[in-house]
Amino acid sequence: MVSAWYMDKSDADQREDHRCNPDRPVRLEELEKKTGVLYFTIPVSEDGSSYDEEKLNKIRKDRGYSYQDEVDIARDTLPNYEEKLKHFFTEHIHSDEEIRLCVKGSGYFDVREPNTDDWIRIQLVPGDMIILPAGIYHRFTLDNKNYIKALRFFVGEPVWTPINRPADEHPARVDYLKNRNVKVGA
């Protein structure tokens, strides 16, 4: 089951968990209600080589995901590792959903709570599948294990174009805030 919490304001290593003291956990229902982030559990084998294809195919069909690939993020598997991690951790939006299924390793997606602009950290471990809505401010980082393997899903041809903050006038951001009942400039 996914874990999520409000982050502290520390500038310590991004790979640390950054929990507030006292801890401010975010329940799954609250995460979806506040941010629009969706969560699914997909059983994955211990070695990450197989997963519940029936359950995953139903989600793919229901949501129209027609393309799938795999990303393997580690120092020895990702060219320009340090540069890419900095790039992933830069706050941005996308004009489409961002969908990830963790099959091995672990990492964090941070999303902005649209009403307060506070960061909520979502920990992904094998079997966690999240769907970030188009227009949500977010970023990604590895945790201190420095490894994740994830499946990525797209509707149609894959497009991964980050639009760095500020992007408040971008149509995806405007739609996101409207769907979350947040007034622009609030």
Automatic annotation (TrEMBL):
User: Top EC class per UniProt?
Assistant: oxidoreductase
The entry lists its GO molecular-function terms as: acireductone dioxygenase (Ni2+-requiring) activity; acireductone dioxygenase [iron(II)-requiring] activity; iron ion binding; nickel cation binding
What InterPro entries does the database record attribute to this sequence?
ARD, ARD_euk, RmlC-like_jellyroll, RmlC_Cupin_sf
Q: Where in the cell is it found?
A: Cell membrane; Cytoplasm; Nucleus
Task: Please give the catalytic activity noted in the UniProt record.
Answer: 1,2-dihydroxy-5-(methylsulfanyl)pent-1-en-3-one + O2 = 4-methylsulfanyl-2-oxobutanoate + formate + 2 H(+); 1,2-dihydroxy-5-(methylsulfanyl)pent-1-en-3-one + O2 = 3-(methylsulfanyl)propanoate + CO + formate + 2 H(+)
Q: Where does Fe(2+) bind?
A: 92, 94, 98, 138
| Alphabetical UniProt keywords | Amino-acid biosynthesis, Cytoplasm, Dioxygenase, Iron, Metal-binding, Methionine biosynthesis, Nickel, Nucleus, Oxidoreductase
User: What cofactors are annotated for this protein?
Assistant: Fe(2+); Ni(2+)
GO cellular component, as recorded: cytoplasm; nucleus; plasma membrane
Q: Where is the composition biased (Basic and acidic residues)?
A: 8-21
Pathway involvement of the protein, from the record: Amino-acid biosynthesis; L-methionine biosynthesis via salvage pathway; L-methionine from S-methyl-5-thio-alpha-D-ribose 1-phosphate: step 5/6
Q: Which GO terms describe its biological process?
A: L-methionine salvage from methylthioadenosine
**UniProt-listed Enzyme Commission number(s):** 1.13.11.54, 1.13.11.53
Topological category with respect to the lipid bilayer: Peripheral membrane protein
Quote the record's binding site residues for Ni(2+): 92, 94, 98, 138
The entry's free-text remark on the cofactor is: Binds either 1 Fe or Ni cation per monomer. Iron-binding promotes an acireductone dioxygenase reaction producing 2-keto-4-methylthiobutyrate, while nickel-binding promotes an acireductone dioxygenase reaction producing 3-(methylsulfanyl)propanoate.
Tell me, in a sentence or two, what this protein's role is.
Catalyzes 2 different reactions between oxygen and the acireductone 1,2-dihydroxy-3-keto-5-methylthiopentene (DHK-MTPene) depending upon the metal bound in the active site. Fe-containing acireductone dioxygenase (Fe-ARD) produces formate and 2-keto-4-methylthiobutyrate (KMTB), the alpha-ketoacid precursor of methionine in the methionine recycle pathway. Ni-containing acireductone dioxygenase (Ni-ARD) produces methylthiopropionate, carbon monoxide and formate, and does not lie on the methionine recycle pathway.
| Family according to the record | Belongs to the acireductone dioxygenase (ARD) family.
Q: What is this protein called?
A: Acireductone dioxygenase
